[in-house]
Amino acid sequence: MLLEPSAVISALMKKLLFVLAAFVLATAAKAQTVVRFEIVDGDTVPVYTFDEVILKELKDTVAEKKYLRLVRDIKKTLPYAKLAAFRLQMMEDHLATLSTEKERKAYVKKTEKTIKAQFMDDLKKLTRSQGALLIKLIHRETGRSSFELLNKYTSSFTTIFWQGMAKLYGTDLKTTFDPVEEYQVEHIIKSLKLE
Questions:
Q1: CA distances from 115 to 42, 44, 70, 110, 122 (A)
Q2: Which of 3, 34, 112, 155 is most buried, with most CB under 10 Å away?
Q3: Chain-centre distance of CA 188, in angstroms?
Q4: What tens-digit pLDDT sequence spans the chain (195 residues)?
Q5: Residue ranges of E strands in the chain
Q6: Is residue 44 part of a domain?
Q7: What is the dihedral angle through the alpha carbons of 77, 125, 175, 87, rounded to the nearest 10 degrees?
């Protein structure tokens, strides 16, 4: 009696599948050992032990220095970003109480002059990386980019001037803060409880 080729192939596939399954189970049994069984919601679940894993701290001095520099920069710039968000909220609240456009423009000019007098010398001392970080942190704290804020409260010429200055120093006022991209910044702020 001759078997059809499809029946032979089917029988071989079953044997191959059985051997493969036996091999996988034997390999898995070597890597882990069942310690006990627990019943969870009526199902029996095996509890395994695995080989010991030792984690070692990597000593990458370049990465460590870069991280410590970022911590220093955040500690220096985050207070300015928080203050900017606070002052912006105060200014917007006060602007809502003013009735004419002339009063609003005068108040914005006065506020800008006060802020420049109070903070310009300190901000000029920031490094390029601190300045770029400050732009991102302002977006993080206010929800708006520095470019949007300048564009809303100053003239187009002033906005373009400061955008040109930012470009000259290798950054962009339109930069936004993305917590996924800037995961280290977000981690540092939360771990140091700077919120």
A1: 66, 67, 26, 9, 11
A2: 112
A3: 10
A4: 455 656 656 666 666 566 656 555 555 555 556 667 788 888 888 777 766 655 566 678 888 899 999 999 999 999 999 999 999 999 999 999 999 999 999 999 999 999 999 999 999 999 999 999 999 999 999 999 999 999 999 989 999 999 999 999 999 999 999 988 898 999 899 888 888
A5: 32-40, 43-50
A6: no
A7: 60
Residue 76 lies in a domain: yes
Question: For the chain, how many structural domains are there in total?
Answer: 1
| Angstrom distance (rounded) from CA 180 to CA 102 | 42
Query: Is residue 49 in a domain?
Result: no
**In terms of DSSP bridges, do strands 43-50 and 32-40 run parallel, antiparallel, or are they unpaired?**
antiparallel
Tell me which H or E stretch contains 79: helix 61-97
* pTM across the whole model: 0.68
Task: Tell me the one-letter amino acid at 189.
Answer: I
